[in-house]
Amino acid sequence: MKTQKHHSEKANQRRVAMATLVGTTVEWYDYFIYAMAAGLVFSQAFFEPVGSELSLLISFASVGISFLFRPLGAFLAGHYGDKIGRRAMLVLTLVLMGGATTAVGLLPTYQEAGIIAPIILLLLRILQGLSAGGEWGGAVLMAVEHAPNNRRGRAGAFPQLGAPLGLVMASGMMALMSGVIAPGDAFAEWGWRIPFLFSFVLIILGYIVRRAVDESPVFQEIAEKKQQSSVPVITLFRKHAPLVIVAALVFAACNAAGYMATGGFIQNYAVESVGLDRTDVLNAVTYGAVIWAAATYVTAVASDRWGRVRVYQIGHVVLALTIFPLFWLLNTGQIEMFYLGLTLFALGLGGTYGPQAALYSEMFPASIRFSGVSISYAIGSIIGGAFAPTIAAFLVQQTGTTTSVSFYLLALTVVSLVAVSLIRDRSGLNLSINNEAEQAVGALVTDKRPIPAPVKETV
Q: Which pLDDT value is given to residue 1?
């Protein structure tokens, strides 16, 4: 009987891993497709009347506007995720994201519909932001709370892999349309729409996979004991506001650096300023995303052995060392050098992304954990990635060099390195609701309150 139970738990963990991987990949594909189109098409299709330079800034700003609504999505999903469960929120956010993405593919352009076209585009981007704000926290908790305490880093890698794999899919689809199916003017006329419409197929796949997964065992305990917090968000900020801010700052550098590629800036700069071929650039970004995925998985697994904080610190150092070479190599105008720059850069991204799921999950008490990880992630994305492409484009326009962009990213990396160094590594902490007293104190090294004796792990 014990062997059968062990096999059943292993099979369920594999289902959870697949569900979180597929779901987050679909969500980030949807999110990144918009960002790439903003850098390659939307400035002409929706914002052209304001002039070429300003239309590009507005187009990148439309990418960032969704981040302003991610905290609202995180508040809502965190509130209901801590009250009615992780799984229900995951299904809802998936459908909301996919529906908004598909609708973008059906939108008329400014020339066809006038000012109403960019207005609807922005509204759909806001819906994407609401969805993204709630997606990540739920996926992470489903993965980590199902996992054994000594394999949480590995389990948390699967929802983290959704971002680089979503970028692989988004770049691959854009490259396919630009280079094969709709090359030249056809891409700007209608080819860019196909990747958005393809999202409808992905919604169905993600919905089927996510509906088949059991609810998180930690939330099942919370529901059985009727220990849901009445207003999780208020409890979170009343008792753990400094922890939320530190956690948000931890994510800022990775998010800003990542949005150089996922937010469309690299693609636009490489094509319009450096003069590289659009399809070659998209292929290079697809390759870089594969390296990012590999580094994410390796560092997530490594965090189970060497601790989340240590691996995170190393990741930030690597990221700091690769920020300048990325643009130096790109500016050579040689596609091979761009590949090399992306390889180095992706290693730093993976090092600051792989351990994040487990680190965040071990920072917050069980009854408000969904709210804690979701809101911290959303605030970090505003500080880091929200307007990173817009800021980068503005810096290049004002200074005429990407060195200013590198210094901007370096400053954020230093901030994130300091922030993660303020966190106490709690790898292996019992995440059960029964151990909430220990979970509630000691996440920051500055917290000198006595830590209660841990409850023996039962999951």
A: 43
The residue among 243, 235, 238, 244 whose CA lies nearest residue 376 is 244
Q: How much of the chain exceeds pLDDT 70, in percent?
A: 92
Whole-angstrom Cα distance, residue 310 to residue 308? 6
Output 394 or 6, whichever has higher pLDDT.
394
Q: How far apart are CA 82 and CA 138, in angstroms?
A: 10
CA distance 106 to 100: 10
> Domain spanning 2-439 has what CATH number?
1.20.1250.20
Residue 92, amino acid? L
Segment 97-134, tens digit of pLDDT: 889 999 999 999 999 999 999 999 999 989 888 888 77
The residues pairing with 444 across neighbouring beta strands, listed in sequence order, are 423
- Distances from the Cα of 18 to the Cαs of 28, 142, 181, in angstroms? 15, 11, 31
Both tokens assigned to 316: 């930030």
Per-domain boundaries in the chain: 2-439
Q: Which of 222, 218, 259 is closest to 412 using CA atoms?
A: 259
CA dihedral 411→389→116→272, nearest 10 degrees, is: 150
pTM for this entry: 0.85
Q: Comparing C-alpha atoms, which of 267, 291, 297 is closest to residue 344?
A: 291
Burial of 415 (0-12, 13-18, 19+ CB in 10 A): middle
